[in-house]
Amino acid sequence: xxxxxxxxxxxxxTLLTEKKYSTIRDxxxxxxxxDIAAVFAGVEPDKLPLLFRLLPKELAAExxxxxxxxxxxxxxxxxxxxxxxQVMDELYVDDAVDIVEEMPANVVQRILAQSAPEMRKxxxxxxxxxxxxxxxxxxxxxxxxxxxxxVGDAILRIRRTGVDKETIYTCYVxxxxxxxxxxxxxxxxxxxxDLQTIDSVMxxxxxxxxxxxxxxxxxxxxxxxxxxxxxxxxxxDRMVGIVTFDDAFDVMEDETTEDMxxxxxxxxxxxxxxxxxxxxxxRHRIPWLALLMVSATFTGLIISSFEEKLAAMVCLTxxxxxxxxxxxxxxxQSSVTVIRAISLGELEFRDLGKVIWKxxxxxxxxxxxxxxxxxxxxxxxxHLMLHTxxxxxxVALTVGLTLAxxxxxxxxxxxxxxxxxxxxxxxxxxxxxxxxTTIVDALSLLVYFGIATALLKL
Amino acid sequence: xxxxxxxxxxxxxTLLTEKKYSTIRDxxxxxxxxDIAAVFAGVEPDKLPLLFRLLPKELAAExxxxxxxxxxxxxxxxxxxxxxxQVMDELYVDDAVDIVEEMPANVVQRILAQSAPEMRKxxxxxxxxxxxxxxxxxxxxxxxxxxxxxVGDAILRIRRTGVDKETIYTCYVxxxxxxxxxxxxxxxxxxxxDLQTIDSVMxxxxxxxxxxxxxxxxxxxxxxxxxxxxxxxxxxDRMVGIVTFDDAFDVMEDETTEDMxxxxxxxxxxxxxxxxxxxxxxRHRIPWLALLMVSATFTGLIISSFEEKLAAMVCLTxxxxxxxxxxxxxxxQSSVTVIRAISLGELEFRDLGKVIWKxxxxxxxxxxxxxxxxxxxxxxxxHLMLHTxxxxxxVALTVGLTLAxxxxxxxxxxxxxxxxxxxxxxxxxxxxxxxxTTIVDALSLLVYFGIATALLKL
Lengths: 458, 458
Known about the structure:
homodimer; mainly alpha; MgtE N-terminal fold; Tetracycline Repressor, domain 2; 3 domains; 22 helices; 6 strands
């Protein structure tokens, strides 16, 4: 689809220069909102309002939602108050909130001024929920039914009010503002009789989240229970909104990106890669690089304190990178596996013992194979083939033993730290490769020099 | 919810021992399929068929789908042919395929023998599509409409046939088996008149995938266009099935797990962490550990070849871990950012120049800050405070310069390799931390010794 957008973009650019607006309009109305937004991203900012005005009202609003906040801001500044009001009238509350959250204060004021009073109130309410909570991603527009309605009444109500609701496929049965059941349109349509009451067809086994549930947990529950929409209730069990599957898609993508960024030692960013300036990238990368560089000082200190012994047996130095890297890789494997299992809701802190025991057994197998491989390689390549000075069987044994112990330590550290982080309320993803590597580096050197001192009598 | 399942589990265990089956049944019917599956996972295998028989037919089938393949296999072996037939009758084709794919041959034969002929045919067809393709995750049960039907007819057809369809909310308008439009139930219910024809309310701007589209691309398109279901067409544009949003959720979760595993140097696994034996973990981890260990030999060779010079200036050794780690971290940041952008469909190979230029500018900023910090730290801590032997301004300058050059090389290598991998048809995720680290280690040492030779006249 990316290629398709690009071709259309070129065509539209030519048509724009030739001022063939009706042709442009004919092309745009055949396109999807997401593709229109992609095309608009490539258009010069001053042409944006012109193009936007060509779109029919509903498509204009839908495309507006799909745009990046930079284009949205340009556009809002380029259109009149009444045009803005038309867009706001078409938006769902959760989309409006997403837009408002990214805009500077003066633009927000203009947006709120042009929203209907009811929507303004709802936007302000949603804005008060913590970032990344269910409350902040929910929409307040859903179909409400009461338990004593008949199936026929319910279908009539959907037909009358459904056009403004983000989803009509799951309807919510309320009694005194409390959620007592859900009804799918499927069950309404397939009900044996239109005269059945809602409480006889509703599902009263409810899956809900609260306004403060983390959005990642919301998405995970929707995925687990295959839900099109999940109801959001407040502290008193009153229904306040729903989160729909398309929001769950976005949350899953965003949370994955965020996890990967944190796991690679970066502070997470909202901007896409191509829209991030080098300075943006720098800002998100330098804190961890600097922190980890300073932490590596300890590793340096360990080497410094063994400098004399190393000088007596220089060939030991050549194995340091291999030992550090293998330790780091072993630790990362365990930490990433555990971080992912935590984020899928599969591991809890109480599983720590089970996890360590599993990792220890894995580490023994990995360590054994790697050690044998390593000793064989040192004896064959370094000793027999290259005749590297000072490399003998005891050196090979020292390196091999260090490797086995390092792998064991690395896997224990790697699986324990993410679980501890979670327990202490930190993001487990912080405990991925860069962090683990720094710790394991120091550990592996201590083990190496310890074993070398003992075996080689340094 | 996890905690909830555990408590119920204990209660059920007690009730099982006391043989209070009707109470167990009463509890189970209030639960969701996913939670029932979680409870069943903790039950002794020989009790499984007993518990399963307590469930009403539909809930039994839904819970069966949510179970892990081990429990499914145990269960199939423990129930009669006619019970198995009842389960198969309730399953959607795509769920049946998922189950069949994980079973040993003899169990597959029994499952197919107990499926209705039509379903058996469909299972066999889907099984022929490549793993992870749209064809392999789609279902063949969807609502078909024809363009000349009225809205009223369409609603009637849904009411009559909808019970066996995985989703009724998007219906597909076919003409000679070719897809010509989609109609949502929302647009049917909100249509001004029941007498309108389907072709007047259908959406003819179609978004489709083919049977061979990768499942990750399918999920990305559903997320991009906010689709409840996406139609799958064959090479001749004939409609063959749909992929629904709940499958997209699963695909997104699986693909993220797979990406993270590959990025941490593991071959991807289908099993969850707690169900993987230490030997499973070992099998998935040892190939990369061994490969990377052997690759680190080159790093060792570089150090060996500079051994004499290092012996003359032993203090240089202490900075090796810091240089290697910072280089590795810088490279990982770039590679992970680029890998994620590729997997979100944001970057194509033609963007390579743009990406390198962005990374170079970022690297210059990061390199500058890190170098200054590092030189200052060496002068203050190592030189003035610790009086480390041999550390002077030239040494600090050598390390600082190496750091800047290493960060630059690391970021260029880090952003280029994933894009090259993608271009060559490999998974870009392979080019993450472990791989980049090994390359950057060698690079950073070459730069270090090169600069040291020049500045310190070794």
